[in-house]
């Protein structure tokens, strides 16, 4: 394996989210890496039909499919609610591309949604005037999240949605024969807001007058405590969904590519039984250690992240939500930032389980009713109002 394939694995993680969200310490991805990016076509319409959990599931599945094609190579990824981004090195590109192509090909049959995907070389994004830079953010244990900067992902998303950029779109011939979504899990009920409002925020600073860390300090002042204490996942709202719930049904569908229809049912039934017993009696069964897993889970969510824009899903009171939106609106009117928010009464969580014995697992968070999609819609409307 060449050094360029080891690039992300060799990066040292940071525990300081403020410096990351200020765009400090990022490293440029190698020119020969590729951005695999995807999103659900007309996700807003699907969300309006109440299919927001399916939208989240497909977004997470697009990441899992690529990761399973990377054969253990450490690569950066980010969940966007209705899609995902994974940057892959040249040694993993062919396998990762065919896995994502298989999901695109089978998505409508499995989840009733249309997925579009593209493979865009980092070199092409740089030649178009954008960059793709990355940092690692440390979570619990050996888990981490990738943060991005440089504007390259924003351009990649634009090209993904532009039919004229068909050089990069995955086509039918890119689809592999089998779909492997091993590790994708969806077994928790919606995370009910303990304080009244689950607030999804996307914001982007304008120029250098205001930094993201300054915004974080103002949010902390409004909240009266550190932002991480307002994370959506807490013991009080972490409850298993029932085996017949729609979320478990989607997980079973996702695993058919590896286990077959009946094998997927048997596998989820067995592991769900062990998990539910462990949760009920707060003990360990096989590799699932209920109290240990819950504590790790709370620390391993992506409720805050950065890709050139700050993205948050936080549990707040109605008054705090009002004060936060007033603060952001004042910043927008003064030209310091653009933003979008969405209020709901819960958050949704979709899980990636890599190795429970090694405590390797991360969990994607989105506001209910399509939090990130709705916040992005509001943010685009504000940008359009300026034009």
Characterize the structure shown.
The chain is built from twelve helices and 17 strands. It has helices at 17-21, 43-48, 52-68, 90-111, 122-127, 152-160, 212-223, 246-254, 256-281, 290-299, 318-333, 371-386, and strands at residues 27-28, 34-40, 77-79, 83-88, 115-121, 133-138, 144-149, 184-185, 191-192, 197-205, 284-285, 288-289, 304-306, 310-316, 337-344, 346-355, 360-367. The model has no long low-confidence stretch (mean pLDDT 93). Helix content is 40%, strand content 23%. It has a four-stranded antiparallel beta sheet, sandwiched between helices. The chain is α+β, with helices and mostly antiparallel strands and 387 residues long. Helix 3 (52-68) packs antiparallel against helix 4. It has a domain at 11-180: Alpha-Beta Plaits, CATH 3.30.70.
Give the arrangement of secondary structure elements:
Layout: H1 17-21, E1 27-28, E2 34-40, H2 43-48, H3 52-68, E3 77-79, E4 83-88, H4 90-111, E5 115-121, H5 122-127, E6 133-138, E7 144-149, H6 152-160, E8 184-185, E9 191-192, E10 197-205, H7 212-223, H8 246-254, H9 256-281, E11 284-285, E12 288-289, H10 290-299, E13 304-306, E14 310-316, H11 318-333, E15 337-344, E16 346-355, E17 360-367, H12 371-386
Antiparallel strand pairs: 1-6, 2-4, 2-5, 3-4, 6-7, 8-16, 9-16, 10-14, 10-15, 11-12, 13-14, 16-17
User: Tell me, what's the shape?
Assistant: globular
- In the CATH hierarchy, the architecture of the domain at 11-180 is 2-Layer Sandwich
Largest sheet: 4 strands, antiparallel
Contiguous low-pLDDT stretches (5 residues minimum) are none
Mean pLDDT: 93
């Amino acid at each position: 394996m060449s050094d360029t394939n080891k690039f992300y694995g060799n990066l040292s993680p940071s525990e300081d989210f403020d410096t990351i969200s200020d765009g400090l310490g990022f490293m440029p991805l190698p020119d020969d890496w590729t951005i695999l990016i995807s999103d659900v076509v007309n996700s807003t319409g699907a969300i309006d039909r109440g299919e927001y959990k399916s939208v989240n599931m497909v977004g997470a599945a697009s990441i899992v499919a690529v990761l399973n094609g990377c054969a253990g190579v450490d690569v950066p990824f980010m969940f966007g609610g209705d899609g995902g981004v994974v940057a892959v090195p040249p040694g993993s590109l062919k396998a990762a591309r065919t896995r994502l192509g298989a999901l695109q090909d089978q998505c409508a049959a499995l989840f009733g949604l249309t997925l579009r995907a593209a493979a865009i070389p980092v070199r092409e994004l740089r030649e178009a005037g954008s960059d793709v830079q990355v940092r690692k953010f440390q979570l619990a244990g050996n888990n981490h999240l990738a943060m991005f900067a440089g504007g390259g992902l924003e351009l990649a998303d634009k090209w993904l949605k532009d039919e004229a950029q068909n050089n990069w779109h995955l086509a039918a011939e890119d689809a592999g024969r089998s779909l492997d979504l091993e590790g994708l899990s969806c077994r928790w009920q919606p995370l009910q807001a303990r304080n009244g409002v689950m607030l999804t925020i996307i914001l982007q600073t304008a120029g250098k007058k205001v930094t993201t860390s300054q915004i974080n300090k103002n949010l902390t002042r409004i909240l009266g405590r550190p932002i991480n204490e307002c994370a959506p996942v807490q013991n009080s709202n972490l409850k298993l969904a029932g085996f017949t719930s729609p979320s478990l049904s989607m997980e079973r569908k996702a695993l058919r590519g590896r286990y077959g229809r009946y094998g997927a049912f048997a596998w989820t039934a067995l592991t769900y039984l062990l998990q539910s017993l462990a949760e009920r009696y707060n003990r360990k069964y096989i590799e699932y250690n209920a109290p240990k897993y819950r504590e790790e889970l709370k620390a391993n969510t992506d409720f805050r992240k950065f890709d050139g824009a700050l993205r948050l899903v936080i549990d707040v009171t109605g008054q705090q939500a009002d004060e936060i939106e007033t603060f952001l609106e004042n910043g927008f009117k003064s030209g310091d930032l653009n933003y979008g928010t969405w209020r709901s009464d819960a958050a949704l969580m979709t899980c990636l389980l890599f190795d429970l014995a090694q405590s390797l697992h991360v969990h994607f968070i989105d506001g209910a009713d399509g939090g990130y999609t709705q916040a992005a819609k509001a943010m685009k409307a504000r940008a359009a109002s300026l034009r």
